[in-house]
């Protein structure tokens, strides 16, 4: 891991860490339990196979003995590992942590309560493991999809348009909302169902690349986000540098 400039805590390197520079991946061991959404999606695949269907059904009926919730500590463990790798001499300067289980189309209340608790624990785990690295850290929590403003008939939210991003870390000028909040009134919704998008995530990342990682705007426009000049870098995201 010495000298690695980018690290992905994921089974496969995402597009965000691919490029000419050095990068590596690390995937934590699979938990004893698997996300319930994944099991729900696997069931029809196994059911179609005469040889595998009985084994899958038997595994699903097996009693739980450890009392743990499915995937209870996967994200905190990954966040802790990212901090540990990054704080090593010559360790990664950038890290990407992948998490799943957020795509809740039905009965989402208990699942989201668990996932939000895991996110909270994961951020705390990174903070506690990063130690001296924390004052120079920016963590961006983002998703590739938005949500509908109202729950559907089965108590979930389908893929929508607008969403939100969270920034955390000792280098962040926090404790505030950034951007134009359009509200959730029926007349303010996009196509009558979604939170209206008022900012571009590329603008968020451009601001961080420019002010935190000190990339030039020319390099960002040419190599990182080509053909995106309409998304101007967000400014004022970072806390004033300490003397």
Task: Label this structure with key terms.
three-stranded parallel β-sheet, 243 residues, two-stranded antiparallel ribbon, 9% strand, 6 helices
How large a portion of the residues is in β-strands, by DSSP E?
A: 5-15%
Order of helices and strands: EEHHHEHEEEEHH
Runs in which pLDDT lies below 50 for 5 or more consecutive residues are 62-73
Strand order of the largest sheet: 2-1-3
The major pleated sheet works out as: 3 strands, parallel
Assign a percent range to the helix content.
25-40%
Mean pLDDT: 85
Number of separate strands = 7
Radius of gyration: 20 Å
Overall SS class:
alpha/beta
Number of spatially distinct domains: 1
Supply the number of helical segments. Answer: 6
Please tell me what the overall shape is: globular
The termini sit apart by 31 Å
Notes on the structure:
This is DUF1501 domain-containing protein. It comes from Vulcaniibacterium thermophilum. The chain is an alpha/beta fold and 243 residues long. The chain has one domain (6-30, 73-224). Helix content is 32%, strand content 9%. It has helices at residues 36-47, 53-61, 74-87, 108-130, 201-211, 217-224, and strands at residues 6-9, 23-25, 94-97, 139-141, 146-147, 159-160, 166-168. The strands form three sheets. Strands 2-1-3 form a three-stranded parallel β-sheet, with helices on one face. A two-stranded antiparallel ribbon has the order 4-7. Strands 5-6 form a two-stranded antiparallel sheet. It is globular. The protein starts with 5 loop residues before the first strand and ends in a 19-residue tail after the last helix.
């Amino acid at each position: 891991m010495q000298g690695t400039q980018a690290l992905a805590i994921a089974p496969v390197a995402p597009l965000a860490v691919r490029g000419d520079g050095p990068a590596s991946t690390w995937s934590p061991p699979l938990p004893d339990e698997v996300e319930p959404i994944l099991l729900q999606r696997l069931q029809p695949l196994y059911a179609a196979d005469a040889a595998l269907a009985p084994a899958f059904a038997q595994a699903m009926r097996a009693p739980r003995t450890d009392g743990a919730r499915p995937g209870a500590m996967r994200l905190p463990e990954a966040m802790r590992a990212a901090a540990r790798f990054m704080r090593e001499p010559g360790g990664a300067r950038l890290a990407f942590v992948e998490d799943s289980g957020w795509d809740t189309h039905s009965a989402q209340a208990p699942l989201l309560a668990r996932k939000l608790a895991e996110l909270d624990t994961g951020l705390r785990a990174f903070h506690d493991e990063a130690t001296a690295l924390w004052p120079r850290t920016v963590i961006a929590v983002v998703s590739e999809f938005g949500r509908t403003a109202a729950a559907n008939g089965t108590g979930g939210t389908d893929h929508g348009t607008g969403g939100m991003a969270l920034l955390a870390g000792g280098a962040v000028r926090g404790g505030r909302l950034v951007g134009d909040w359009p509200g959730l009134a029926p007349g303010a919704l996009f196509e009558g169902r979604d939170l209206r998008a008022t900012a571009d995530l590329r603008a968020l990342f451009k601001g961080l690349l420019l002010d935190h990682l000190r990339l030039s705007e020319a390099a960002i426009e040419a190599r990182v986000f080509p053909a995106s000049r309409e998304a101007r870098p967000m400014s004022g995201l970072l806390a004033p540098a300490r003397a």
